[in-house]
Amino acid sequence: MLTISPTGLWTITPPSLFMKLRAVTGMNDILPEESRAYQRLEQRFRTLVETYGFRELRTPIVEELGLFHKSTGETSEVVQKQMFMLAKEGESLALRPEGTPSAARVYIGNKVHAREPVTKWYYIGPMFRAERPQRGRYRQFHQAGCELYGDAGPIGDAELIDMVYRLATDLGLRDVGVRLNTLGGSEARFEYRKRLIAYFTPLSDQLSEHAQARLSDNPLRILDSKDPRDQQASEGAPVLLDCLTDADRAHWQGLLAALDRLKTPYEIDPRLVRGLDYYTRTCFEVVTQSGNIGSQTAILGGGRYDDMLASLGGPATPAIGFAMGIERVLLALGEHKASEPPLVFFAPLGSAATLASLELAAELRAQGLWVELDGRGNSLKSMLRRADGMGARFCVVMGEQEAEQGTAQLKDLIAHEQRVLPQSELVHAIVSAPPSTSTGTSPAQTSGRPA
Ligand code: AMP
């Protein structure tokens, strides 16, 4: 942009001074009042999966582009259309669109199979896909997922599926459903692919352009197309269950028997194929009707990928995993904006009272409580207004006189009660206060710690 400087000369102003300061489309800031909901959900996820023995793996968000081509799959939509690529001095890098390839890279690179027969990892973090953003579908989003290596199932599959069902229902989601299918092993897939091509080829002029392109590279994807033309053409399509080998069938039946024993409800959906190329045998999705998540009712998806590790150059290791979309779950729970008020607000007047308040605030924080101390030297009126605005339950007011006498005024801002008590009793009085009637929570429950 050209402007005239005070000296009258034309100068070029850096465009960055004029650009609108906003986040990239489809990538959202998570503001403090929203991040509490993320923390809570992540904590509940961690707590549950750790009872099954999963341990956390953290990997970089950038990987070599080739990793995703080899694992997520050349024909998957994610690799074909949705990769965020970075070019840097001869390196081809990409922002990770999912967590499974990175975990597989770590598993192979660290020869983990040689150390332990069964490995259980979980991860939580941002993923990146260049999609058209809409409600429940973003270009940066967060997934929490698990990977189980070295267990060919079907018992491991059943436990994993039961775990995600429990997770979804424990989180308070309503009408949770597990959709389940088997994609068979490579032999069954090969046979099925042939049958699908034979079935769809004479119908190809009735298919969408997208499905026509899929016909030669990945005809399975036609089955989960949202286009009505493809859905209609798929109606009489062969089903994979008819192509299973004896071993695939035994695996599938073993899975169903174990889920029945666990009383995990599921619905068999022979059209469920999922978007990533690597799945073999078991694949599943968890859906919910809770909340307002638009057309995106799947909160979680996963499946077995027994061939991936060997195809990446690692040992032939059976594996199964899933990933849950954190934003989708939060939308479904409707607690995207959940935040908690500070519990105790200190409003000291004068330096002696401020110093005494500092000490008491530290004691309360050591009990795990959330404490706000207004040390700016403002008027009592403005401090009380701030305490109220922040939704504090208690306000501790201390003036010069109280500081001298070793007392403090404790105001319960929700019950509208106040009393003067010795400073030595203040911490106990707050910690042991009964739940407030309007919030139904006690101080210990409403502390700043994620539940
Ligand atoms: P996937 O990795 O494609 O199997 O997806 C697993 C889960 O991640 C889905 O069920 C969604 O809950 C979530 N997810 C996938 N893509 C997105 C996206 N673009 N935005 C938000 N959540 C997503």
Protein architecture, described:
By secondary structure, this protein is α+β, with helices and mostly antiparallel strands. 35% of the residues lie in helices and 21% in strands. It contains 15 helices and 18 strands. The strands form four sheets. It has an eight-stranded mixed sheet with strand order 3-7-8-13-12-11-9-10. Strands 15-14-16-17-18 form a five-stranded mixed sheet, sandwiched between helices. A hairpin with a 5-residue loop joins strand 1 and strand 2. Helix 5 runs parallel beside helix 9. The site of adenosine monophosphate (AMP) has 17 residues, from strand 8, strand 12, strand 13 and helix 11.
Descriptors for this entry?
451 residues, alpha+beta, eight-stranded mixed β-sheet, five-stranded mixed β-sheet, 15 helices, 18 strands, 35% helix, binds adenosine monophosphate
Q: What strand order characterises the main sheet?
A: 3-7-8-13-12-11-9-10
What class do helices, strands and sheet pairing give?
alpha+beta
| Annotation, overall tally of beta strands | 18
User: Which geometry do the CA atoms define?
Assistant: elongated
- Bound small molecules, which ones? adenosine monophosphate
Strand-residue proportion: 15-25%
Integer-rounded radius of gyration = 28 Å
Distance between the termini: 51 Å
Oligomeric assembly:
single chain
Q: Helix amount, in percent?
A: 25-40%
* Number of contiguous helices: 15
Mean pLDDT: 89
Low-confidence stretches: 1-12, 445-451
- Sheet with most strands: 8 strands, mixed
In short:
By secondary structure, the protein is α+β, with helices and mostly antiparallel strands. It has helices at residues 32-51, 65-70, 77-81, 100-109, 155-170, 186-200, 209-217, 228-233, 246-262, 308-311, 326-333, 351-366, 380-389, 400-405, 423-431, and strands spanning 2-4, 10-12, 55-56, 62-64, 84-88, 91-95, 119-128, 140-149, 177-182, 267-268, 280-287, 298-304, 319-325, 344-348, 371-373, 394-398, 407-412, 417-422. The longest helix is centred in the first third of the chain and has 20 residues, at 32-51.
